[in-house]
Amino acid sequence: MSETDIGEAIRRILITDGPATDDDLVERLTADGVDLGPHPEDTLLDALEAMDHNVVMLVDDRSAWAPQLLAGRVFTHRLSEWEIERDTLALDPDLTAVIVTTEIEGGDHLADGSAVTVVTFPMDAGLVAERGIPDGEGSFFLLLPRGHLAGMGLRGGDLVGVRRVEAGIALEKVDEDTVSTDTAALGGALTALLDDRHAVDLQLAIVTTCANDPSLFTQPLPPLGTTLPDLGFIRYGDWLQLAMPPEEVLSHRYGLDEKDARSAAAIISHFQRGEPGEDDLLLGMSDSAVAEAVLLELQPADPDRLHVFAESVGQRLAAVGHWLHGRAYELDGDVIAAENALLAAEKLDSQWEPIVSDLLYYANDRGNAARGLELLRRLGSGHPLSPIFQKFQPQPRPDLGRNKPCWCGSGRKYKACHLRSEILPLDVRASWLYQKAEVFQLDNIESAELLQTLAYRRARHSGWHEDPLPADAMLFEGGMFARFLAVRGALLPADEHILAEQWLLVERSVHQIKHIRPGRGLTMRDLRTGDVHEVRERTASRTLRTGDLVCCRVVPAGDTMQIFGGIEPVSLGQRDKLIELLDRGPAAEELVDFLTARFAPPQLVNTDGDPLMVREATLAVTDRNALRDALDRAYERNDDGSDEWMDFNNTQHIRATLHLDTQLRVSTNSENRLDRVLDQLRTLDPSLVVVDQSRESMDDVRTTTAPSLPAYDTETAHILEQHVREYERKWLDEPIPALSGHTPREAAADPTRRDDLTRLLDSFPDDESNPGATSPRRLRAALNL
Predict the structure, then answer these.
(1) SS3 for 656?
(2) Burial of 107 (0-12, 13-18, 19+ CB in 10 A)
């Protein structure tokens, strides 16, 4: 039996009998005569996965049919002014279940047929910024058609209801008088879910309550954001928890046992009330886990208050008091005083983990690998700085015996003087300096959040893999390297401090590879300044070719020039735009977006300039004959006399086709064209109702069909072929930035520019089987190359 048939059998069971466990489904399918093969559990899981988001997994591991489960449920949300202005609904936490609604079949449009989109931050940071959504307003957003909320007569402060209906997602203004204040059933349902669980995913918790109680959310309730706290629940990120005593929260959050959790909770309470704390109470700070939990929970921003707290603790626990003073000095930006406080703490207790761990970061910035390795031996293995200290530990000079006089002229033997404290050359320590800045950046909460955003933007097209660009852009274009130097620079060796200052003066640039020494280095010319650099580069020098263009930052490193932060290939077409961007001084996000664009699939557009997308809509028809006459007046009927019409633009390109049988089906190749036709159809026949819509990008078409012309339906293939031929014809006579503003025909006729044109054509993908792909072969033929 095919996966589709098994999926249909599962759908019938879930709709008829309700949510079921995997074991129940296997049993029922087998009883119904469905052949699940020799491995029924695996077959079931494959079938469930193929059913996409229509099947949702509940908190208790049952599967449910989401369209049936959420049909008619209404979730409320109080609108803000910015949501009205930007036609956006913040989905966290009031409308969290709506995210599931939008993912199931038919959930990508409103009941009137207009398209909606769910975006997430930071994955869709570009779309979030495009709508002007304020920072900190949530992670999930529903983007509505422009003017939609104001068109409904809604204003800031109004209550809106979001409900799944047969035709899509319905938005409705909710009368405050119709909102039920009886939330006890919801509270009981959520409490039951949390009986044997510490926390549950909020979204799945709400969906599960719908499965367990068919009456929940069938009438408007107050928004979840205000209801949940009133019912005794708290949210921790995406998770829902029962409100707990502080010691239980600390126990779960930091893995403390009951005694330590009570101790930490009491100390935090005294600190927050500004009390010095009782002596016996403060003794709890001697436990490293308690001390770390207290500081992490408090996240103190006031160094003076932390110093007062440190004085109180220091009266009974002198080493811990010095450690707290060190943290307070760090908050105040005085790293020398902080280091001295930690050294004083170490003299009193050289084994206490927080003291030793903090000193490791000072040894790292000081460039003292021997000291770092000694501190690591006290902590044991597994510290993130361990590989750095191992890599940069001092190496004995091979030209000097242990018992020979030391090279420094002290008169002592080498083994007693500099053997264990050799200083590595600056060209070697340059990479250590770069890693110090990276450690600082990762330890900074604000930069870590933005760095995650940059990583998401980078992975949008390139996928997740180790990639140095986001971190490097954050360090330099994002200003974190300058901040590192300002905050930790006093700890750096003098020559590294000077080197770091030099790095701040070096801008990222576009370079052309002039000469390659495989495994050793490169000769590169900076296209912005004209400078030529001899660069030590062992890895990229094995793969780059003479003439290649790259974007990177070439910096001094002792008596060498080196590259840190990765090397980005640059196409000829990108060169001038990238140089213009770098001249402007881009923000980190701009740079990452530009250099990530090379991973994005090419975006095809139709003759109206709209991105190509296969869009279809099906409309219910009440009077077929009247509609046929109206379509004859508005559109051009097919020559064969069938009930099929075409919409042409002023250049006689087909913008849409309409086919009438028991229903009216509209097919177009862009969002705007479908919206235009639907608007006109509503004018022709106001009784028409959209009952189904589908959206498929050209990337989806390519990945779900074989990459050859017959794999596309005839209409789509014709649209693609028509578009690309027209694009190629115009391209031959358009000024191209990669050709310094000359057209391809001009470059082909100019011997000094022909190489640039050839290199540009070589960079085009060569896929003759794809009707939507530009053909380098056709272009070369047209240019007589």
Answers:
(1) strand
(2) buried
Overall size of the chain counted in residues:
785
Read off the amino acid at residue 359. L
Dihedral (CA of 761, 763, 768, 770) sign: negative
Q: State the virtual CA torsion across 601, 606, 612, 617 in degrees, nearest 10.
A: 180
Provide the pLDDT for residue 352. Answer: 95
- Contact between 98 and 165 under an 8 Å Cβ cutoff? The reply is no
The string of pLDDT tens digits covering residues 3-21 is 778 888 998 999 999 999 9
| Residues with Cβ within 8 Å of residue 555, at least 6 apart in sequence | 430, 502, 503, 506, 561, 562, 563, 564
- Smallest CA-to-CA distance from 522 within 508, 506, 539, 510 is with 539
Alpha-carbon gap, residue 367 to 370, rounded angstroms = 9
Of 765, 742, 768, residue with least CA distance to 755: 742
Residue 281 host element (H or E): helix 279-282
Q: What percent of the chain clears pLDDT 90, i.e. is strictly above it?
A: 47
> What residues in the chain have per-residue pLDDT under 50?
701-713
Distance CA 196, CA 234 (A): 17
Three-state SS at 730: helix
Q: Tokens standing for 454?
A: 């940059």
Question: Among positive and negative, which fits the CA dihedral 20, 26, 28, 34?
Answer: positive
CA dist 303 and 333 (Å) reads 10
HEC letters along 534-590: EEECCCHHHCCCCCCEEEECEEEECCEEEECCCCEEECHHHHHHHHHHHHHCCCHHH
Closest CA relative to residue 554, chosen from 515, 508, 586, 512: 508
The label of the residue with tokens 């995210």 reads 99
